[in-house]
TrEMBL record:
Gene designation per UniProt: thrB
Source organism per UniProt: Halomonas ventosae
Pathway field: Amino-acid biosynthesis; L-threonine biosynthesis; L-threonine from L-aspartate: step 4/5
Superkingdom, natural source: Bacteria
Catalysed reactions, as listed in the record: L-homoserine + ATP = O-phospho-L-homoserine + ADP + H(+)
Protein name, per record: Homoserine kinase
Amino acid sequence: MAVFTPLTQPQVVEFLSRFDAGALVSLEGVPAGTENTTFFVTTNRRALVLTLFEQGEHEELPFFVELLDYLDEHRLPVPGPLHDRNGDALHTLAGKPALLFPKLPGQHPKAPNLAQCHELGDTLGHMHVVSRHFPGHRPNPRDLHWLLLMHHKVLVYLSPEDQTLMKDEVETYQGFFGDATTLPQGALHGDLFRDNTLFDGDRLGGLIDFYNGCTGDLLFDLAIVINDWATEADGRLDPARHDAILVAYQARRSLTVAERDAWPMMLRLTALRYWLSRLLVVYVDPPAHDLTPHDPDRFRTILKARLEDGALPLPEVSQ
């Protein structure tokens, strides 16, 4: 159960009284989630999601509010947070920072079809066109600088072969991106896995959980998506899903020459990013709560596949 901070109905009734959201009808803890406490809140007027932030840098929460407000204003399918009667979104409840969101329609797609991949690519492309003008700034917390600093912490837990693999990859990225042309920048989701989307059939109901949101290379976001959405169990890329996402994405925003050159390396870098972050959770910094960590080997497999097979050709899109 991922309700780390229990709430009573009177607490939620008092919290809701600050908003123009209706009266509480029901309160239900959400078992999914690994970091924060989430409740489904039903009022006599609408369905809502209440999130209490259990960990992380709380001073960065205003960035996420501003980003979601900005994307919501530009008609992206994101849960724009509710603001109270004084115009404030961020509150404290049970001693934890709290935000209230509309409940978006749909379910996580476990095996996305081509129509869902096309929808996701189109929406991400639209988001990146819009997000290039977002005025906020938060450095990417899982970029190459983080890899350089953190990979040493897990080497002792790896086989000699994997130690060499990780060290060689980080050195390769440092050489490639250190000399590369600056890539197009903007606001990123930063963690757009399938379980951070909601689909109602083939219609995308929403992009959720922006708590890895930051500003940085737009290509970083796209590579995370391809490594999750278009990858088979053996780590190899599925050409149909790969092209469905990238054709739809590029109909919104064409990749630059520099991005096309960097694409194979960015697929590798983002695979290592998740291999490393999951190893850190298992061996170095386990979660504060009794939860099963994600398997690090999933992204070791993906990284090995990217090294052995390279990247698929990027589809050409006429504008």
